[in-house]
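Table 4 source record.
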Amino acid sequence: MDAARTAGPSREIVLLGSTGSIGTQAADIIRRNPDRFRLTGLASGGGNPALLASQAMEFGVEVVAVASERAAPAVQQALQALTAAAPGRGTRQLPKVLAGADAVDVPGGELHQLSAVSFQLSELKAESREPNAAGV
């Protein structure tokens, strides 16, 4: 891969299914390559609100989307609990929590057509193995 691509700006990623097996693997790759990737949004079904909130706070995402409208309050509570437990995080704005139909098409552009966003773990893994601009 050429140095221009590896030295360029990081790729902004919306991670679908972030709390599932493949999603947590992708998050780990992103965590290990902060110079190459930046998470801007997370999405999940809503079955693991604590993990979703933890991921959102760790990566500083702007938007969290859950398929189940009933899961949104639990995600919001988990985010608030994490903020209360870590005083240094109190200055960071909590991500916007979207649920159900709101998670698919948002006025203002946070996550338009979330269901149409594709995420290719194999491509992400391949990029994370490539040497960076310093040849490492």
